[in-house]
């Protein structure tokens, strides 16, 4: 008899617990779900005078740029910080100047050459330099050898100098230990004044001949 009563008590206790759990679940379902906040990208904002205005949400910086009638340009400079991306407020003229600077900046190329190089391979190297020059590159050449190959180093340099004299400028020629180093640059573009002088001199000669 006692066993039956104990079993009934346990069953009733379990029923109460189940009903309580169900009630709590219903209440949780009725509660309004919290909106998950969207992650906003933080950026370092820089004004037109290179002053850091602090960390701002990206959408806020875009609104500010539109309000001030300015452009927002990404700048990669460690002075503005390395953790967050930096954006600078710029005028149209400033943006054009920045683009022209990057387009005219020369790419650095390095070319080591052994003084024992064959004539055919040397011509190939010179052709490579000529291709780089057409792309506005700055080529740093190092002709290497040893103590006994000073004459070969000089001959290799003179051969390259002769092949490149009409299409380049060779500057900063220097001897360091067992290597001869120099820099090859694209030829200078003649200024408009020089062109005008050449045209004037030609026209003057034509008049004299007539």
Automatic annotation (TrEMBL):
Signal peptide: none
Protein's UniProt name: Translation initiation factor IF-3, mitochondrial
UniProt key word Protein biosynthesis: yes
SUPFAM superfamilies, alphabetized: Translation initiation factor IF3, C-terminal domain
InterPro entries named among the record's database cross-references: T_IF-3_C_sf, Translation_initiation_fac_3
Assigned GO CC terms: mitochondrion
Keyword 4Fe-4S: no
Organism of provenance: Araneus ventricosus
Superkingdom of the source species: Eukaryota
Family classification: Belongs to the IF-3 family.
Gene Ontology molecular functions: ribosome binding; translation initiation factor activity
One GO-annotated biological process of the protein: mitochondrial translational initiation
Keywords: Initiation factor, Protein biosynthesis
């Amino acid at each position: 008899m006692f066993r039956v009563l104990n079993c009934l008590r346990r069953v009733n206790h379990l029923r109460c617990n189940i009903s309580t759990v169900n009630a709590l679940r219903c209440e949780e379902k009725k509660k309004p779900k919290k909106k998950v906040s969207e992650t906003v990208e933080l950026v370092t904002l820089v004004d037109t005078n290179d002053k850091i205005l602090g960390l701002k949400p990206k959408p806020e910086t875009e609104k500010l740029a539109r309000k001030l009638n300015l452009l927002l340009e990404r700048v990669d400079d460690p002075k503005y910080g390395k953790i967050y991306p930096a954006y600078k407020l710029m005028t149209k003229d400033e943006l054009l100047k920045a683009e022209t600077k990057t387009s005219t900046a020369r790419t650095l190329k390095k070319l080591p050459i052994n003084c024992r190089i064959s004539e055919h391979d040397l011509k190939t190297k010179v052709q490579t330099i000529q291709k780089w020059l057409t792309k506005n590159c700055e080529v740093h050449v190092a002709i290497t050898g040893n103590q006994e190959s000073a004459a070969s180093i000089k001959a290799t340099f003179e051969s390259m100098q002769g092949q490149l004299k009409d299409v380049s400028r060779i500057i900063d020629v220097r001897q360091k230990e067992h290597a001869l180093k120099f820099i090859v640059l694209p030829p200078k573009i003649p200024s408009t004044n020089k062109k005008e002088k050449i045209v004037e001199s030609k026209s003057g000669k034509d008049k004299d001949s007539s």
